[in-house]
Amino acid sequence: MFKKLFGIKEAQIPTPTPQSSNNAATKTINSIQNLLENEENLEKRRSLLEKRADAEVEKSRDFLRQKKKAQALQCLKKKKLLETEIETINNMIMRVTEQRMMLEGQRTTVEVVSTMHSAAMTAQQNMKTMKIESVDKILDDINETNDQMRQLNEVFANPLGAGTDLDEDDLLNELQELEASELGKELLEPAPVPTTKVPAAKRPTTIAAGKTKVKSDEELELEALQAEMAL
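User: That's the sequence. What structure does it adopt?
Assistant: Structure tokens below.
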């Protein structure tokens, strides 16, 4: 619509290039930095003026104590002028802050849009590389390979050679006959007789004057200790 109103032809509108985008980003960053510096300078100036205004108030009080009303009034006039300048600086700081925030928001928006544009171009390039026909062919190849593997598994699952001619019923009958024969042999064998004798517990004894005396555990331990000390 605006192109038709101002007579701008389509060919006259320059297409943004990566170089121009980089230049615009650099200018934006520089402008934001300059606005920050200006804002800091204005804040320093405001702080100085506030101190001077407070000083004029103190001077006015001193003159009033000295009964010098004219000088006190003059100090209040200076304070009023300083406050006016402070108000002007506050307005300037507000304008600078608004402009800085606007540029920061634009910079963020441009970066987001640029990233989205790059992502869209990459997606388009990927779709050009990955055609639907190619995807269908890949899926067909995968399904064909799976069918071949399934057939191979079925082939290897079936027994080969002499194992296919064996009759399972004959094998089960033969196994039962073998189990019956082994059971008959076990029944005909005599039961084993235990031959191991259980040793009786013995304790060392000493014979003294025809009388047997059983030593206690403490006495045995004491004798063993004396024997070790004698070695």
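The first helix runs from residue 2 to 5.
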